[in-house]
Write a structure and sequence with these properties.
The structure is a single chain. By secondary structure, the chain is mainly alpha-helical. About 70% of the residues lie in helices and about 0% in strands. The protein is built from three helices and no strands.
Length: about 70
C-alpha cells in the first residue's frame, strides 16, 4: 500500500460508521482479489507490477454505503 491508499483509508474511516467499515474493507479486498485472478488468467502472465488499491477501496466505500444503508 502506498501513501495514497493510506490517506484514502483514513478518509473512509472518517466517513463510515464502525459497523460499515468492515463491510467496506471486505468488499475492497474481494474486489481486488477477483480482479487479480481475472487479470492473471486472462493475460496468462505473472503479476510483477503493482496494482493501485484505491479504485477497489472506492468501490468498497460506495458498495458498503448501499449495502448497510448507513449515511455518511
Amino acid at each position: 500500500m502506498g501513501t495514497g491508499d493510506i490517506l484514502f483509508a483514513a478518509f473512509q474511516g472518517l466517513l463510515l460508521s464502525i459497523r460499515s467499515l468492515p463491510v467496506c474493507t471486505l468488499l475492497s479486498v474481494f474486489a481486488a482479489l477477483i480482479f487479480s485472478f481475472i487479470l492473471q488468467n486472462w493475460n496468462k502472465v505473472v503479476m510483477k507490477k503493482s496494482i493501485p488499491f484505491v479504485p477497489f477501496m472506492s468501490f468498497g466505500l460506495i458498495a458498503s454505503y448501499f449495502i448497510t444503508g448507513k449515511k455518511f
